[in-house]
Amino acid sequence: MPHADLLFLGGVVYAGPGRGAVPSAVQVAVVDGRIAAVDADLSAWRGPATEVVDLAGGMLHAGFVDAHIHPIQGGLERLGCDLSEGSSAEDYARLIADFAQLNPPRGCDASRAWITGGGWAMSAFAGGTPSAAELDAIEPIRPVFLYNRDHHGAWANSAALALAGIAADTPDPADGRIERLPDGSPQGTLHEGAAGLVAAVAPAATPDDEYAALLEAQRYAHSFGITAWQDAIVGDYFGASDTALVYRRALAAGRLTVDVVGALWWDRARGVEQVPELVARREAHSAELGPASRFRLSAVKIMADGVVENGTAAMLEPYLGAAGESEHPTGIAFVGGQALVDAIMALDAAGFSAHVHVIGDRAVRDALDAFAAAASANDWATRAPTDARRHHLAHLQFVHPDDVARFAELGVTANMQALWACNEPQMRELTVPLVGAERAATQYPFASILRASAPSRLDQMTENLGVEVEFTARGRQDSVIRQDGRPVGVDARPRLCAGSDWPVSTPDPWQAIHVAVNRTLPADDPEHDPETLLAHEALTLAEALDAYTAGSAFINGRGPGDAEVTGIIEVGAVADLAATDRDPFAGTVASIHATRNVGTWVAGRRVFG
């Protein structure tokens, strides 16, 4: 028996779905970056060089996998004018003024010394639309351009608008809207693609800036127990440069410790003619770095619609109020209908995982229709349980009840940003007034998607491939797939995965898990509303934790049956692990948010704590 490199003891271990609904008091041994043993007493594995990690009553779990994140963008904001710690117009004014004072113009005229960053909340301003005049009062000379937290809009001062040539006679772009004053002149808020008009003239981050941002994002993510992520946009996007080279630079330098899937950007101004280019890029990347690289280009990101708060989410019925009387009364489908069907069918046939942004119920339905068309055209029923195509829909704010069971039917994973599933100022002041109470009751139906009793892709595989499905006490989410009598792992198509969408929201998974379980923000949060948002859609702590670990690992190609397995604690799995300061299962659900990460390991190497 070899001696362990790492030995975890003195706490509890949550092993993952199908391995117990609560943690157990066992020990874990790690050898050569993999889990070598899990048992009640592993003292025989202890040798003179073994590093013993005393969990001190805390919990060891698989490292978190953030299934939807913008890390370089988040890192740039942390290194730029970062407004994420503010919550009011007064906070933002102070933070901007402080940044301007600490970062005076260097080597150029002040009128060309841009201030860029972001992180402001729409709820801090009437109608969610801060004005250029407010920014001018803080900084009248230097151009200022700041994305909001959801990155579906931006705030610009008059100097930035002038440099972009935005005036009363500037038409709205096809995929966005310029907020205007009564005389038609730009008000200062730019929605969706309109933000790109300023982004195109703002100074782009340099390669060194982006490299520093990646390393900062990685450090920050590891501090929360995150060991892997799916970068939701890799490619040229609204003036932002393609970040693939940044990842490759970190990989070559031996500094990329996080395991990454990059989702290549789908240019919504084009169609399926771009698929061969995406395939060529993926194949060239894989040929050079190898399919087992820590940075893989196996997914494509499609932004199907916008967001509700600015009227660009694609809805089945018109918005209420002025938004419902606008040029786009049901929002904007950036990629919808037949265009989305064609895109999904082509990407699926080319072997890509499709990662689709959907907020409105029409966007969700369009996407599910597209996957249904692909399932028929590309004969999904004959695919192996561990087929590499891991399709998922991100955000899912509004899902029509008729579409809930279709996730299970199609084997498409719901990628949840659970921190948003609560009542708070933006929900009450900007969202609900635009959709009304009936549609507001269809938001973030995570529990319904998880527990829907519908014929699933597993049933099709049972018929077509001779696959046996063994259900556990917790149901289909924990079902074990066996092929030729051999366990291939837990349900190869998890219903849920999870991500933060950072820098839109905090990357701390425990905050999102708290809301997934409670459907409220923590009681000590300044935006806490005691009224739960659709309490029947709450998940259990185990279900939420499974989504953020095993579910997200699966869509990143690291699930049961894959060559490398993460997201679970079992013998043979990669030792991507995180430790907490407590056992969150032992406390009340109201205290989940207080859980703190105290240690993070990637392939058995400590990267935090």
TrEMBL record:
Domain of life according to the entry: Bacteria
The name this protein goes by in its record: Amidohydrolase 3 domain-containing protein
GO MF terms, alphabetically ordered: hydrolase activity, acting on carbon-nitrogen (but not peptide) bonds
Pfam family, one: Amidohydro_3
Every Amidohydrolase domain range: 51-452, 495-608
